[in-house]
Amino acid sequence: MAAKTVSQLVQMLERGEITSVEIVTEYLKAIDEHKDLNAYITVTHETALQQAKESDMRRKEGKPKSKFDGIPIAIKDNICTKGVLTTCASGILQNFIPPYSATAYQKLLDAGFILLGKTNLDEFAMGSTTETSFFGPTKNPVDTTKVPGGSSGGSAAAVAADMAPVALGSDTGGSIRQPASFCGVVGIKPTYGRVSRYGLVAFASSLDQIGTFAHTVKDAASVLAVISGIDERDATSINKPVDFDSTTVTGNIKGLRIGVPREYFNGVNEAIVTAVKDVLKKLESQGAVIREISLQYTDYAVPIYYLIATAEASSNLARYDGVRYGYRSKNIQKLNDLYVKTRQEGFGKEVKRRIILGTFALSSGYYDAYYLKALKGRRLIIDDFTKAFSQCDCIVAPVTTTTAFGIGEKISDPLSLYMADILTIQANLAGIPGLSVPVAKDAHGLPIGVQIMAQHFNEKVMLNVAQAVEECVTL
Questions:
Q1: What pLDDT shows up at residue 208?
Q2: For an engineered disulfide with 155, which of 119, 165, 208, 390 has Cβ 3.0 to 4.6 Å away?
Q3: Is 423 in contact with 401 (CB distance < 8 Å)?
Q4: How far is CA 324 from CA 84, 128, 321, in A?
Q5: pLDDT in tens, 257-284
Q6: DSSP label of 124
Q7: CA dist 182 to 154, 178, 303, 456, Å?
Q8: Dihedral of the CA atoms 269, 274, 275, 276 (nearest 10)?
């Protein structure tokens, strides 16, 4: 089966041209053929085929759960799937099978989606390359010597290599948009509160958000619409109508005001700058109004983000103590050994680094100087975006400062990796939606994405701009 979009597969199923079993079989075959990419941690062969048989029976009886009944999907391995291994790519959860499902995953099941497997990620979603995974790094399908980005590198690689037509990821500081850009697929981070975080294993609770990967804007939007909505089990989910899906994504941007932040082009690779500027010219030719804006606190975003994110991580990861679930050290002589040795042996280097940083920021005598000050800085960034959106309807900018870099190239330089997140983390700090859509390739054939951001719960406008971009570029 040649590469197909979700919408194409839906049409084929509705016309009876193909069965879900045939679709799932082809994707499972592709997963086996691309094992070297290490995109999946767990592949649910038997379960997927059984679910596909049940889906085909429902369609035969004229009772599909939704138009998506029988469509396969990949899920990032920090999203709980009842009865299916959920590891967060960490040694401390290497054998954890959750007794419940995340709300986002349950909504997919209720719509008839079929789980192909759980995708690789940076351990506990802490990283930008998928190299910190306990199960080894994922390779970029475009160039296997390069990283796929992170932390949702497995999901991005799975879609890019046609090992899944669509996938879920999570985005705490760019973990959907950056790998989407590196792998040449569409990746959406919705507004904070748009999708329930219930069942998403927490990294930084005020920043984490589940989103989608797909080959097209419409596919990513339609699956995002399925998982969106209020959830009584998540106090941070917000009761806002889901006013978008594939039918609302028209690409009509006539008269739309597009803001271009001047600070987002500092230190950015020449090929990326050129690609973004070319896209802006094409959008202008379609009737959009392009205007330069300023996001003056951009340079402060990295320290603000890494103080808040690590502080929340140190708190969230305190639960992994070897007592209730997950890995427990066998070399225990006294109670203190249970905590110290379990965490020492179970966590990887990057996770330990962030726990230490966060614990320090929250410690007595340093709380006001670091964490509290970072929260005040976050408020300034939120106000910065509020001011910007009074001048424009959406923002278009680069996703990353470079295209995909080599595996092993930056992993020993954490500060360099942290700085690489400078163009994506502000959307998380402000809680606004953002996405990456592929627009070009550099001289080495590596994908380049353009980032589009909009006001809170204004995914509809953001998706229309993304559709306009998709329609005007030739890859």
A1: 98
A2: 119
A3: yes
A4: 18, 30, 7
A5: 999 999 999 999 999 999 999 999 999 9
A6: G
A7: 12, 6, 24, 26
A8: 90
Q: What pLDDT score was predicted for residue 1?
A: 61
| Closest of 429, 390, 433 to residue 244, by C-alpha | 433
First to last CA, the chain: 21
Structure tokens given for 395: 């923002």
Both tokens of 128, joined, read: 């930008």
Whole-angstrom distance, CA of residue 323 vs CA of residue 317: 13
Q: pTM higher than 0.85 for the full model?
A: yes
Residues 6+ apart with CB under 8 A from 187: 152, 156, 169, 171, 176, 177, 179, 180, 181, 211, 212, 213, 220, 435, 436, 449
Bridge partners (DSSP) of residue 434 are: 189, 453
Can you tell me the distance from the alpha carbon of 129 to that of 193, in angstroms, rounded to the nearest whole number? 26
SS3 195: strand
What is the token pair recorded at 321? 């103590």
Q: Which tens digits make up the pLDDT trace of 100-146?
A: 999 999 999 999 999 999 999 999 999 999 999 999 999 999 999 99
Any bridge partners for residue 7, and if so which?
Answer: none
Domains of the chain, with CATH numbers?
A: 1-475 (3.90.1300.10)
Query: Would you please indicate which residues are annotated as catalytic (active-site) residues?
Result: 76, 151, 175
Residue 451 phi/psi, 5-degree rounding, is: -95, 135
How far is it, in rounded angstroms, from Cα 395 to Cα 462?
Answer: 9
Give the DSSP letter of residue 311. Answer: H
DSSP one-letter code for 264: G
The rounded distance, in Å, linking the Cα atoms of 153 and 51 is: 26
pLDDT tops 80 at residue 226: yes
CA 265 to chain centre: 23
Residues 6+ apart with CB under 8 A from 379: none
Helix, strand, coil shares, percent, the chain, to 5:
40, 15, 45
